[in-house]
Amino acid sequence: MVFGREAVRLIHASLGVDLGQAEAPNFALHALAANYAHGNMPKATATAQVMSDIMTMLEAQLPTHLDYSSLSLARFITHLR
């Protein structure tokens, strides 16, 4: 998340736009996703399958439905990678 905080700081310093620290995780997640997307395709495919399997297991065990549009779930998946 250091990357995200630094991105927010640089945008403020360069453009004078204050995005607030609440935007830092979004920058960090985008950077991780871009890095992941430009990697080894067989590894990316295998990782995606493992992530899918984990999400299926979690949904089977939890009394609630996972919200795939939530930032919290996106962060959890990023940590698993």
Outline the structure in words.
It is a single chain. The chain is mainly alpha-helical. The protein contains four helices and no strands. It has helices spanning 2-15, 24-37, 41-61, 71-80. It is flat, with a radius of gyration of 16 Å. The model has no long low-confidence stretch (mean pLDDT 77).
What attributes does this structure have?
81 residues; mainly alpha; 2 domains; 4 helices; 73% helix
Global mean pLDDT: 77
Radius of gyration: 16 Å
Beta-strand percentage?
under 5%
**For the terminal residues, how far apart are their CA atoms?**
15 Å
DSSP helical segment count: 4
Count of domain modules: 2
Pick out the low-confidence regions.
none
Got a strand count? 0
What summary fits the major beta sheet?
none
Oligomer: single chain
Which geometry do the CA atoms define? flat
- Please bin the fraction of helical residues: over 70%
Structural class: mainly alpha
The sequence of SSEs as H and E is: HHHH
How would you summarize what this structure contains?
The protein has 81 residues and is mainly α.
